[in-house]
Structure formats: C-alpha cells, structure tokens
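Morning - PRP inputs below, output right after.
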Amino acid sequence: MNKPLRIALTKGRLEKDTVGLLEKIGYDCTAVREKGRKLILPVPDGNLEVVLAKANDVITYVEHGVCDIGVVGKDTIMEMQGKFFELADLGFGKCRFALAVKKGSKFYGGYNIKTIATKYPNITRNYFESKGMDVEIVKIEGSVELAPLLELSDGIVDIVETGTTLKENGLEVIEDIVPISARLIVNMVSMKLRQQEIERFVALVEENI
Ligand code: PRP
C-alpha cells in the first residue's frame, strides 16, 4: 500500500465538522476523536493520516508539501495566500468578515485617518484600498472587540458568526465584507504525484457535503 495521504485539519471551530465529514464518508476516526495529546493520528481504513494544527500552520504544512491536503477557513486563505489548489467549499464553518464599530458611533466622515484593529491586516488593507480609503491598521492577536472599547481603534475588521460577541460588547456591524467557509486545499506537487488518490478523496468529500 502507498504511504497514507496526510491531511491537516484546523483545530478548534472546524474540527468537529471536519471529523463529522470524514465519518460521513465512512472513515473510522476513533483515533482522532480519542486523540489525547497526540498530534498525528491514523485513519487506517482510509489510508489517511490526520494532523491537527492551527489554521495558519495548516496552510504552511500544505504549501510545503509535508501535508498533501488541508481543511482551513477561507479567512486564513485570504489572509495568508500562498501556493496551493483550493478544490472544494465544504459548506461548514460559515461566517463572514465585517467592519464593526461601537454602536451608534459615526465611522465615515471627518478628516482624521481612521484606525482599524484586526487579526487580519492583509484583508483589512485590501478592503480599504479597494475603497480608496487610507486607514491605520493595528494588529491584535486576541479579542479584537476590546480595541474600540479601549478606544485604541475606531473600528474592527473581524469574523462574525452569530454576532453574539459584538452584541455583548456594544458593537455593531456597519459593513459586510465577504462570506467565509471551510475549504479543502491541496499541495500542488501532491496533486500531480498522487492525482488518482487525491481525486478519489475529493470526489468522496464532494459526495458527502
Ligand atoms: C471569532 C471572532 C469573534 C467571534 C465571533 O473569535 O474573532 O471574536 O469569533 O463569533 P460570534 O459572532 O459567533 O460571536 P474566535 O472565537 O474564533 O476566537 P479567536 O479569538 O481565537 O479567533
């Protein structure tokens, strides 16, 4: 048998749905479900090996070819870019990028340059550049919602799923930027060298989403 196809899954929000999808296809994900602290997990009947990683690292591992396939949010793909094939929209992990401000505050108008806090500086820069608007971007690692509350920024560009975090912190969306969902990505060399196996896997995924 060939060496297993290695698939990098994003830990956290997307993990449950991705494992659910693999199980729907018929793979035995017991080792993934009972992982403990293990990071590389076999899915023996599918000749797959699952790697659990942070979203940015999923892209890095797939881009470098140490994982053949990855499951990662479109948000991370847009922010990091990189060279790989994006083969399928998995239809879960649905949310959107939005521009939000303190409820009732006026964002547009005036002559001062606005400050935007975000975990996604590239997406934020592209968005405001496309509007022809000069903004100052402050990169935040944790809860971006804090920045306008602490008056560090005039607004935030962030992921909105249910809207609860914004609501509970007195913020509101003033513009939707782009919808997001989980995507299946494939390393470019793997796509050539292991084309049949990958096409078979992608077909199974597409039948089950
Ligand atoms: C994201 C995002 C918001 C929150 C939005 O953070 O940065 O804070 O989810 O979700 P909601 O609209 O359903 O309230 P996440 O929980 O992924 O944590 P993170 O700070 O680790 O990115």
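Note: The chain has two domains: 5-93+181-208, 95-179.

O.
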